[in-house]
Write a sequence for this structure.
């Protein structure tokens, strides 16, 4: 089945470009477009896309506020892909903390954009190389905001899993890295969420970033 995509950017040229990029391959269906933040949220309610590609320069209210409101909509299941020209760490923090599943710079290649949308539609996370650098800086540096205290301390395994959630690894990828079953990973993620009062996976990722949890090295558990 095709991935239902809503395109939102203040620049009509950008919207046309996105439609063109996505129409070059099968598997994508554009269900609407908008240049205004408030209208974008309304379209998410009515068209129920799988993914909303959101520019940060929307009129009305900006794309980062759209991300927050879309994440809070009950029952839509829409995941946000932020497409931005900003390289500011604060924008990255706001977007991912607000519920975005991808943060991509506008210099991203068409191939990587399509690949990222597929990943997001499948429930994973995606970052462009520039955003990945911001994430490394955030993880390496001291947290700017103290994370909420968990109800109970996380075990070493729970902290490891939370760190992998924060860098966008799926349950299956975490299972392969840690040598346990997917169901065991799901149980661990649920336990982490309960302890840190996270309503969803994105909030757990935000808690892990704020706590400065280190993700495992590539190829390691």
């Amino acid at each position: 089945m095709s991935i239902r995509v809503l395109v939102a950017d203040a620049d009509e040229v950008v919207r046309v470009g996105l439609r063109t990029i996505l129409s070059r391959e099968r598997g994508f269906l554009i269900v609407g477009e908008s240049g205004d933040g408030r209208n974008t949220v309304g379209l998410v309610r009515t068209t129920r896309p799988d993914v909303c590609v959101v520019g940060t320069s929307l009129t009305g209210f900006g794309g980062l506020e759209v991300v927050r409101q879309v994440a809070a909509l009950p029952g839509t299941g829409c995941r946000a892909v932020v497409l931005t020209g900003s390289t500011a760490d604060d924008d990255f923090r706001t977007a991912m903390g607000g519920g975005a599943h991808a943060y991509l710079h506008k210099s991203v290649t068409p191939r990587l954009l399509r690949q990222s949308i597929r990943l997001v539609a499948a429930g994973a996370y995606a970052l462009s190389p520039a955003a990945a650098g911001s994430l490394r800086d955030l993880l390496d540096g001291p947290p700017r905001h103290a994370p909420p205290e968990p109800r109970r301390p996380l075990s070493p395994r729970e902290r490891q899993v939370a760190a992998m959630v924060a860098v966008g690894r799926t349950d299956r990828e975490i299972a392969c890295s840690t040598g346990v079953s997917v169901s065991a990973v799901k149980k661990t993620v649920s336990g982490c969420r309960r302890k840190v009062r996270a309503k969803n996976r994105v909030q757990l990722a935000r808690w892990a970033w704020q706590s400065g949890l280190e993700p495992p090295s590539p190829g390691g558990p």
Observations:
- The radius of gyration is 17 Å.
- The CA atoms of residues 67 and 182 lie 29 Å apart.
- The chain has a mean pLDDT of 84.
- The chain has ten helices and six strands.
